[in-house]
Specification:
The protein is built from 30 helices and seven strands.
């Protein structure tokens, strides 16, 4: 590929290629092309020559490290990255590549840390590079069930490229309703409004800076639950769940509102399901691994148990050689009358080549099953080896899920018996189960503590969300989706005495947006200095009550905080305001709204906004912004790759303002971006003639550069 000199540099600096890696990027490109063609030695020779000339700079080492990684020369790549970071410790892509090396070695959490370092060091303009990093973060996070980290990364990826359908599909595949993940996992957790704003120097849009800001704030206001919550949420976004849980517990201790405590406690429960959280987790899955010594004998035993009804829903995957299913036992009944056989799950099993895996949240049951299999297999199996891992929230249903034979599916007494089994689990088992999030107390005992009581809200909500997730369609080993009875969690809360006793929060959360039901009278007064507000306070403003000047001020404040969607929302509200003689120029509002439409790939809306803006400007601002709106229209056509319309727009604009030198250079640059070299020369030549007539040396130099660039791309 050939690099556009006016595109952002692939090194992630945020600079244009022309003012960054242009002296050697062509050589780098040629070296990678040789590598693709299998000429590794020739490619390596080019890099050696490049380092001799530019080895004092960081980015040549970065490109060299990438070459070594593609050549699978991992140790040399590590050394090259070290050279790059010695020359520029803030080189974001070097941390990204180092993270890939850690990932290659199986050090996923170390890789995650390096990926976040890369994000904090990459320029916001390096959108393609940031997109790569966020995709990597989400992939690693999902492997470790760091759901908040994955959600944050996918959201940022979509923020960078909302026009990519595959990103939306990818997000749905990772965290959508079809995954079977409970709502507690998929909930859109957002920062809350704190009593004191964070220090202005930390408002950079970078997650690392935000974390440092709240680490300082909790020291200044240790009794503010929102400050601790925000710190915990940011740590969760970074994949540091242990630190996040510590901060969230501090938030719960200081919280006075039960509804906020419920959300905080639910978030804690979600974080405790991540891999590596076994020491703190409430729910563990016990794995017993038995090495297979005699496959034929084991197969005979499994067939015998299947005939006896101890194994059900067997599925065999021919392509992988995997056999899986459930070990079950019949739920006992007291009455001796006829009844529908109902089975509870003892364990899931996976028979992979060479090993039998038994998995269950019931430790005693699966231990007994493993020993029974080992003894009856008569040396066909090695002694079981036990491991405990955090339980995937989708598998929590194994605690209360029941199965029936296909021939009994329509029996009338089935729903009542299934509901009774679920009720017994929640009210007779879980209610008295010690939970680590409750400091080893059962939910019933924790209600006696004013401090632990606040944690019970989250424990119940998480359990309810996991239960409700099982009520929807989900894939079973045999392709069946058993309909679970709908247990009313109001019963469980009533038994616990768990009722909201505090008033709803009076302060808005960061993610809160005005809804049609909100009343203007309930909103706080509009502050005089909107620039001093944080994102939470900006989001809580009533846009209908703001003047045009206040709308623009709020929009600019949101942009400084990198709350781009909020800024666009202000802009769209502002362009619809009635005429205000005190603010006749609305171009900043229209420009932001147009940009928002372009980010979404909605070109018709962008063109419509430009037309509205021009009309407003002509009627109320004497057409002072005519050039700006025309340039916006040309930019839309460039984004649409419509060369003809873009050229026509620039021609019309230049015809109206022939002495505006920037119009010729802008037109030529946009044509270069579209690879329309003849049109680029056309505008650059016209600009050069104007430069000679007006003796404008700067314009002349710029036009000559553009002509040279057009000649190179031919």
């Amino acid at each position: 590929m050939s690099y556009d000199p006016y595109a952002y540099c692939p090194c992630g600096s945020g600079k244009k290629v022309k003012w960054c890696c242009a002296p050697y990027l062509t050589t780098v490109e040629r070296a990678f092309r040789l590598l693709e063609e299998g000429q590794q030695e020739s490619s390596h020779k080019l890099f050696q020559d490049l380092l001799q000339r530019y080895g004092t700079q960081a980015t040549p080492w970065l490109y060299y490290a990438n070459f070594l990684m593609q050549s699978q020369r991992w140790e040399e790549a590590e050394a090259a990255l070290e050279q790059a970071l010695q020359r520029d410790p803030q080189l974001g892509m070097a941390y990204y590549y180092r993270g890939i090396l850690r990932q290659q070695e199986g050090e996923h959490l170390g890789a995650l840390l390096l990926f976040h370092k890369a994000v904090d060091r990459l320029s916001p303009e390096a959108r393609d590079q940031l997109l790569q990093v966020f995709v990597r973060i989400a992939e690693v996070a999902m492997f470790h069930r760091l759901y908040l980290t994955a959600a944050y990364a996918t959201e940022r990826a979509l923020h960078l490229r909302p026009d990519l359908p595959e990103l939306h599909q990818w997000q749905e595949k990772l965290l959508g309703p079809s995954t079977g993940l409970p709502q507690a996992v998929r909930h859109n957790y957002r920062l809350r409004r704190t009593r004191r704003p964070i220090a202005e120097q930390h408002i950079t849009g970078r997650l690392g800076d935000a974390r440092r800001a709240y680490e300082e704030l909790v020291q200044q206001t240790p009794a503010d639950p929102a400050a601790w919550f925000n710190l915990g949420l940011i740590c969760a976004w970074q994949g540091e769940n242990v630190r996040a849980v510590e901060a969230l517990y501090r938030s719960l201790d200081a919280e006075t509102d039960d509804r906020l405590a419920e959300e905080t406690g639910t978030l804690v429960e979600v974080l405790l399901t991540a891999r590596g959280m076994e020491a703190l987790a409430n729910y563990l899955e016990h794995l017993h691994r038995l090495q297979v010594r005699d496959p034929q004998r084991l197969w005979q035993l499994l067939e015998q148990w299947h005939r006896q009804g101890k194994i059900t829903q067997i599925e065999y995957q021919e392509e992988t050689g995997l056999l899986r299913g459930y070990f079950v036992e019949e739920v006992p009944v007291l009455a001796m009358s006829e009844h529908t056989p109902l089975y509870r799950i003892t364990a899931r099993f996976y028979l992979v080549p060479g090993e039998l895996h038994l998995l269950s949240p019931w430790q005693e049951r699966v231990e007994q099953l493993a020993q029974e299999l080992y003894q009856q297999a008569q040396l066909a199996l090695a002694p079981p080896q036990h491991q405990a891992h955090t339980l995937d929230p989708r598998n929590l249903a194994l605690c209360f899920l029941t199965l029936v034979r296909p021939e009994h599916k329509n029996n009338a007494d089935l729903p009542e018996r299934e509901l009774q089994y679920v009720t017994d689990y929640f009210e007779a088992v879980w209610l008295h189960q010690p939970l680590k999030s409750l400091e080893g107390n059962s939910p019933l005992d924790a209600m006696g503590s004013s401090r632990l009581r606040k944690r019970v809200f989250g424990a119940v909500r998480f359990l309810e969300d996991c239960y409700r997730a099982t009520l929807g369609p989900h894939e079973e080993p045999a392709g069946q989706s058993p309909a679970l009875p709908r247990y009313d969690f109001g019963r469980l809360r009533h038994k616990l005495g768990l009722e909201y006793t505090s008033v709803p929060p009076s302060e808005p959360e960061v993610s809160a947006s005005p809804t049609p039901a909100d009343s203007t009278a309930s909103r706080p007064a509009i502050p005089q200095d909107l620039n001093a507000l944080n994102v939470a306070e900006l989001a809580a403003l009533d846009r209908q009550a703001l003047s045009v000047e206040q709308i623009e001020q709020a929009m600019r404040a949101a942009l400084r905080l990198d709350a781009r969607e909020l800024a666009v929302a202000f802009a769209r509200a502002g362009v619809d305001k009635p005429f205000d003689p005190a603010r006749p120029d609305r171009y900043p509002l229209f420009a932001t709204a147009i940009t928002g439409a372009l980010v979404q790939g909605n070109y018709p809306e962008a063109l419509q906004l430009i037309q509205r803006g021009e009309q407003y400007d002509n009627e109320h601002n004497r057409g002072a912004r005519a050039i700006d709106y025309a340039l916006k229209r040309a930019n839309v056509y460039v984004r649409m790759k419509d060369v003809e319309q873009a050229v026509q727009t620039f021609d019309q604009l230049i015809a109206r303002y022939p002495q505006e030198g920037r119009l010729y250079t802008t037109a030529a640059e946009e044509m270069l971006r579209l690879k329309a070299t003849d049109k680029a020369r056309y505008f650059a030549d016209r600009g050069l003639r104007l430069a000679h007539q007006s003796q404008n040396r700067d314009l002349e130099a710029h036009c000559r550069e553009l002509l040279a660039a057009a000649d190179k791309t031919r």
